[in-house]
Amino acid sequence: MEVIYKTLFYISAFIIFWAMIGYSMSLKIIEKLYKNRELVKDYNLKPSVTVMVVAHNEDKVIEDKLNNIIDLKYPKDRIEFLIVSDNSTDSTNMIVKNFALDHQSLKIRLFEVNERKGKTNAQNEAQKQVDTEFLVMTDANSMLDANSIIELMATFTSPQISYVSGRLAISNSDCAATSSAESNYWEKDLTIREIESKIQTITAGNGALYACRNDDYFDIEPIRCHDSEMPLQFSLKKKRAICNHDAIAYEKAGELMEDEFNRKIRMNREILRLILPDIRILNIFKYKWFSYFYFGHRTCRYLLWSSHFFVFICSFVLFPDSVFYRCALLFQGLFFLTAYMWKKRWIRGNLFKMIYYYTITIFSQWVGVYNILSGNAKSFWEKAESTR
Question: Would you give the DSSP letter of residue 380?
Fold first, then answer.
């Protein structure tokens, strides 16, 4: 049994190290092999585009969003706007209808989903109303840079490119410790995605801003989301999912830790499946770097909840065995105690803030796993008001 505990300890410890440090370090080394490869753009590309915004009870922000998207710098005869109301019960629908009447020279449509099943289901239903060449998705509370559509379309320089993700910029990073921590984490993740994109393909996008070829769109189950599913499926089809971080969407991160914690729980509603969503990923000879990217960037991160559990249990069981395991157990205790002390405001500092942020990330994974096993994982959720 001792051999089993030690094996579990070292495997779990490696997963934690690789997810948080090792993978990003390895990418920086691998990137040197592709130092001459740059993102290719063609600004002459001006295909027809539909900008889709899915909204559920977004009357606080929907008019600002509408004003934002009609000011996008793109030929007016090549762009349409489709606002998808996911069974809104507030004044969202009326605001959109009145706005469309006031701007009849523009192609603005409202599509109403009668039964609320979540964002993905609304996208599936509304996409069947789209006949443009490309589909751009953006959230109701995301404000787009004026050149964002031009940038996205300029990146589709090859038929092999099916999906392009923009850059989410946190607009309130200095407003609260929570939004600051999220911004710091997100900026590091964007660097990883840029390297993956340069070499072959990204492993996930973001819901604030992304585009795909309309002919390549596929329906997915409502419990799933485009952020994780589209890059995965396109990569398995030997297509490319890449990023262009000159296409920018500005969005507020949650300023309350409760909002951020709940957001992470929602993100983990499919965590067990996403550890290895398709066994074909393991075929490194066929999928090349994508297999490596997915293991390092996704699989290891989705295993953090179990890795921390096994490291703690194994170091506890092996505590009498050597000083090493005693130190390991002590370190873990101090780590989580530091997070608790920061939460109680007994200590301050950026390092302690990031420890707390990391801790709620792990706890949100545990809650996500519990929700899956108990059947409580949902395809829709209530938005965080601090992000509006």
Answer: -
